[in-house]
Write a structure and sequence with these properties.
The structure is a single chain. It is built from 1 helix and 9 strands. The protein is mainly beta. The chain has an 8-stranded antiparallel beta barrel with strand order 1-3-4-5-6-7-8-9. A hairpin with a 4-residue loop joins strand 5 and strand 6. The radius of gyration is 24 Å and the shape is globular.
């Protein structure tokens, strides 16, 4: 009887260890099974055509240039998103939002944007929010989405490409992930 009880205890311990290892392994590898989408577009912002200063910031700080606006400046935009740096390339979306200059040197702002996309296999919008550096790459967390981007998570990186002239160009890199509950059965 003691031999059978001991074997039962060992069997239960062995099963518990196997179950723990299976649970641990699956919790570390869960990100490998998420549906994801990674791509880049180009945002073209033209001062007083697709982007406007609504409220001037304080005087005495940074002035207005391709890369700076005075502290406290409220800026709004509705910029085209294209597949290449050339403005006349295929239009696949619109970036619309606002930013408020949040640094005294005029190089950083708090930004809120909705990126409406019409891609080959995906249609809808991605909403982002975060801090933007006008002359360095900036990561913005995705806070929501619509249509094909409903429940999407991830981040968008905005990087300056061409900051000379009236139209400035930014590379917009999308790193999007759908949680398992958001994927519809085919």
């Amino acid at each position: 009887m003691a031999f059978t009880l001991r074997n039962s205890v060992y069997a239960i311990l062995l099963l518990a260890i196997i179950q723990f290892k299976a649970t641990s392994a699956s919790s570390h590898d869960h990100h490998k099974h998420l549906k994801s989408l990674h791509f880049s577009l180009f945002q073209h912002e033209t001062i007083n055509k697709t982007g406007y200063i609504i409220v001037n910031g304080i005087e005495g700080g940074a002035g207005i240039s391709e890369t700076t606006t005075p502290f406290g400046t409220l800026f709004v935009f509705q910029d085209p998103l294209t597949v290449t740096t050339n403005r006349s390339s295929k239009l696949v979306g619109i970036s619309e939002g606002t930013s408020i200059t949040s640094s005294l040197d005029g190089l950083r702002s708090i930004s809120i944007a909705k990126l409406t996309l019409r891609l080959k296999n995906h249609k809808g919008s991605v909403s982002i929010v975060g801090g933007t550096n006008n002359v360095k790459p900036s990561d913005h967390p995705v806070v929501g989405g619509t249509e094909d981007f409903m429940f999407v998570q991830g981040y968008v990186t905005s990087s300056p490409v061409d900051l000379k002239g009236l139209t400035v160009v930014y590379k917009i890199e999308f790193h999007l992930y759908w949680p398992p509950y958001a994927i519809q059965a085919s």
